[in-house]
Design a protein that fits this description.
The chain is 31% helix and 25% strand. It is α+β, with helices and mostly antiparallel strands and 375 residues long. Strand 6 and strand 7 form a beta hairpin. Helix 2 packs antiparallel against helix 8.
Amino acid sequence: MDLHARGVGGKVTRQHPALQQGDADCRHEGRFCRMVKTAGLQERLAARYGRPNLAYKINKDPDERWEWSDAHEVALVQNIGAMHDCAPRVYAVEAAKPGFYAHVLDWVSAGHEPTLEALRRLLATIKTYDIGTRKIVSIENRHPKWDIVTGVTNWSREAFLDWGGYYLEEPEAYREMVVERLSVHISTVFKGTPSETTYQGLEALGIPGDRDLQHRLEVMRWGDIAWGGKDVLDIGCNLGAFCFEAANAGARRVVGVDVPFIASPMRHAANLLRYWNMDFYGLGLPAFADRIAAHSGLDNFDVVLALSVCRHIGGYAPWIATLVKPGGTLILETHGDQSPAEYEADLRRDFASVELAGYTTDVKTRGVFIYRKGD
């Protein structure tokens, strides 16, 4: 998989023109960047990222620096703002044309005065995460940060748009915060005391796990799945090990669902690791299963993962099958003390093909089923 074609892990994606002849042009012009939305561009971005209403924000100078901050650095900080409801979310950095870099982000209209609550959210976010700016301001300006963030042309009421030049003053502190929330806090909840390992682990952040990821991937025949362009849902995603594997293999959209205290820091983990087109939702299942579609905009998925989770969500039920697209696949791992036979009758009712792929044996013995839905 060519990661340069996906914006994964901070790579710049393949270039394609921001505007093509015949597109209806809609743009906001700023001092350093312009936001561009056209019907043709939106169609291409929707096909690539699986999201509607996307646009380009393109720097006007042929440089990867955005007002003295790296384009990826700006995206990371802006996405912190998006998590606190004061910025449009960035999903990738692309080469819009040779030498010119674009953020792929949600389209919003500029030039609207910010609400007082939006200003409060923005300033609280800047303070909480120790966000600085490299913007050049005159020496007479006694309150440069305040003046920069309150300019009406930089706002869309609830969203601050001009994140160029912003950066984390202490990026390692942000990383340490994410690691602590994922390791110490989560292991304490599940194990009753701080532990050196979590259930899945997250190797990219140096968090070891109790489960053997490679062993599980082999039993699931992960490499036999054509992941390119697929929409993937992981129910009970934990620290997102399979979410990241699916994205690395070429999946288009990846959605992880778990309890809120896991999903919240996982959003920061995906941001830190620059998997910007990945979503984590904190939902109690099955009560709020309908919110998966409401949040993601996807009614169903090409691949659904339910790995040692059914006992925690009320058992297997037809609502899980409804999340699988016609022709799609469900991969289900049982719990350690369950017989695979407990699942077979219900799943044969909902799927055209049922296959026991094998058993994971890293922690207890668990059956792994691969179910394929009829077209």
